Amino acid sequence: MTYFRQLLSLLKPNAGRGGNSCSILLLCCFLATLQCCCSALTAQDPQSSKQATRVLVTGAAGKTGRLVLSKLEKDPRYEPKGLVRSEASAKQLVKNKDVNCPLEHVVIADITSPTFLEDLRPSLEHHGLDKLEAMIICTSAVPRISKLSFAAMLLKVPINFVRRKPLVDFRSMRFKWKHPNGYPEKVDYEGQVNQIELAKQLGISHVVVVSSMGGTDQDNFLNSVGKVKDKKTGKTTGNGDILLWKRRAEKYLVESGLDYTIIHPGGLIDTPGGKEEFVLDVDDQLYKGPNRSTRISREDLADLCVASLSVGKGQKVSFDCITRPIQPTSDNGVIPESINGDVSTSSSPDPPKSAEEALTKFLELSKTANYAL
């Protein structure tokens, strides 16, 4: 405070020669110092950096969405926002120490609501949604096993054991959807269309979608989830066809004119990532061949989503992804041929290549899904 009083006294008109010049010089020095201090304070906040890409992660309260959001929160290249369905989901997300997501990074809106776009308008400026550059869609209908169906399955286990049949018949089980309006048509088609329209309205140029393998097969078991077949009439009722609705939403995105990265993961497992090699291909070719294992950890999938923001920027690509144990090279150093021509991104006992490296190698092939199938 004393410093400012002395400065003000010096800035008063002086009778001596050169007094005004000294005052002006001191004022310039003070303003320059003040500007440097302000610049230093701004530089200390990584979220305020103009170079950070602003990304909206939808379905941020889900298992995969949380992992994606967590990785973006820790990456100084990005400034993420997480979209969740309810206040309860928002509170759980903020309390989750593994995610480390502050409350101001959370947006609440129901993607299945007819007023979804209108509901988000108050959040455009308040949450900075009007300056978004990319979107990662992690929303999906979530099935739950019917309790009665599960009990019936357990009762049949001893009988199946005696008859030497498979102990558990998953195809005989019945499923319900987690939320009343959470069935595939509402979430995986209408909800995704709403999100794509939001991206178009906000000027978002790149959309990443977490979908699922199996979309080329109408008879895939996952399409039966949520359906009930009448044994007498043979007719099927209920809300199912999750893969068909996902694929229909993908086609909508493909025809939107936006840049996109559509990821079809295999079966998701909750294991640590970075242990196996990425294997990428298209059109469900990974289901074929002697190796029928088609799974991927959620953490590896999350890494691939983050990699898509940089490596997949400006691209229009859709592909399948799984992971497999690292394949060693032969004694003469020749890399074993990949099954079905898919891209095996590591061929030595060394640590597996990163998601960025795997995706970069795949994009060099200029392959993408054929939506005419």
UniProtKB/TrEMBL annotation:
In the UniProt record, does the keyword Flavoprotein occur?
A: no
> So which residues are the signal peptide here?
1-39
GO molecular function (one)? oxidoreductase activity
What keywords are annotated for this sequence in UniProt? Signal
Q: Has keyword Signal? A: yes
Xref: Pfam families: NAD_binding_10
Domain NAD(P)-binding: start-end pairs: 187-309
Q: Where is this region: Disordered?
A: 330-356
Q: What is this protein called?
A: NAD-dependent epimerase/dehydratase
- State the organism named in the record: Nitzschia inconspicua
